[in-house]
Amino acid sequence: xxxxxxPTDENVLVGKGTADDAGVYRVSDELALIQTVDFFTPxxxxxxxxxxxxxxxxxxxxxxxxxxxxxxxxxVAWPVETMGLEPLKAMLAGGAEKVREAGAxxxxxxxxxxxxxxxxxxxxxxxxxxxxxxxxxxxxxxRLILTKGIGTGILNTAIKGGLASQAEVKMVTxxxxxxxxxxxxxxxxxxxxxxxxxxxxxxxxxxxxxxxxKCRVELETAAVPILAGTYDYAAMGLVPVGAHRNRDFxxxxxxxxxxxxxxxxxxxxxxxxSGGLLFGCRAGDAAEVVARLHDAGLEDSAVIGTVCSDxxxxxxx
Amino acid sequence: xxxxxxxxxxCPAPVLRAREVVEKEAPxxxxxxxxxxxxxxxxxxxxxxxxYAVSDTAEGNLFRVLGTLEGEEPLSAVKPVAxxxxxxxxxxxxLIMSDRMGTGDDELGRxxxxxxxxxxxxxxxxxxxxxxxxxxxRLTCKDSPVLEEIKGYEKAGTIVLxxxxxxxxxxxxxxxxxxxxxxxxxxxxxxxxxDKVVTFS
Lengths: 317, 201
Fold this sequence. Notes:
- The structure holds two protein chains of two kinds.
- Helix content of chain A is 35%, strand content 25%.
- Chain A has helices at 47-64, 80-83, 86-101, 152-160, 166-177, 181-188, 202-211, 230-235, 241-250, 262-269, 286-295; strands at residues 12-14, 23-26, 32-40, 68-78, 105-113, 118-127, 143-146, 192-197, 216-219, 254-255, 277-281, 302-308, 313-316.
- In chain A, the strands form two sheets. In chain A, strands 8-11-7-12-9-13-10 form a seven-stranded mixed sheet, sandwiched between helices.
- Chain A is α+β, with helices and mostly antiparallel strands.
- Chain A folds into two domains: 12-131, CATH 3.30.1330.10; 143-316, PurM-like C-terminal domain (Phosphoribosyl-aminoimidazole Synthetase, Chain A, domain 2, Alpha-Beta Complex).
- Chain B is an alpha/beta fold.
- Chain B folds into two domains: 2-77, Translation Initiation Factor IF3; 92-200, Hypothetical Protein Ychn, Chain: A, CATH 3.40.1260.10.
- Chain B contains six helices and nine strands, in the order βαβαβββαβαβαβαβ.
- The longest helix of chain B has 14 residues, at 106-119.
- Classes of the chains: A alpha+beta, B alpha/beta.
């Protein structure tokens, strides 16, 4: 999108300028529409699970903007001749289950014939124009909280290599298929300064977007929730190409890398699929937010850092 | 020196190819050719984790990663790094070497084995692989009294394999009703990679 010029008007509340998760357009003083789209190639073998994961991933951006999903449409690319209709039906059933769980409705969709299957959704959500959560806006003194463990990129690489156990496959699938609805519900009750969801750029990549030259975050690396098995697979070199790319793109912003454990570094840059919410809240609220997230079933939620204003960038502690 | 050409292979193939060679041959030195920087890092880290001293050189748009074993200890004496699993669920391999359990009475033995295979269900997701050799391959044939149960395990994610040589010897290859075929090398590797091996004859 770099260098392309698009028309805009004064109702665009969030557009492509601020690297946000979705676009937001004001309809009235009380209502703005969130619009987002996401799709990808199979992450897991089971078509039903892939449908669930792809849908959860697409819906996540709406929650990350502080809104609720309302309607969705399927985007499907499918090799009908070679794969047939049964797995396609299972995939769409998985996607429909997640849309239903999100309280939204599927209005239809579009499909094309393709050698390689792809699936996702375009989603419309509602949000109050005054209550949009943007990626930027962290305040000095805020604590940073993450609601899901990281490591899906590395674990999926191990799965692809046939090295993971059944239990690990199940664990990764479930964490990717979990909607950010419950997390958003908890967080909504508090004073949140900025929020995003952790996906393809990895924890450090998305944190970099939140920081973008405006503040400094001290990341307590020992407190970052990491999915079981991730460290050992990363230690074996099962690190996806995306993690290297994320590092190349963002490491200029990160201090404390010299002498830092390279395995942990790769995990912090590991591209996530359908990751958790990453947000800033008031220091005094942090403990209660985490307690409520745990009560809501998001057991990996943790405070992972503090926002400072003395410099810009991310310091690994 | 062992050489692996991993050009054109996408992640995680370069690491897996290197791992295959390291585990089968335990070479004193190994060279892996890759075509991207990410693969250099991944392969270097893998070889380092197996005790190799690693260096790499670039040649045009290719990279050579070189691993040399330091010290006297041969790699085969080093236990392979087992993939870490979630607490509680170990990778169990069950090796069934007959279609009956125990000696004394064959009729009873066959009934016991049927019961055992059915009760394997209790292992849940820990049941990583079910391998059948010698008379055990009768249990994966179309007329097996536990065909549906084994199909169920396969559907739930357990790898089901029968020894190809055994099936051929017993003239049963055309009768196989579930799972794939395997060979002695893969059986040895699988028993090495499992957290626990259970055998029955």
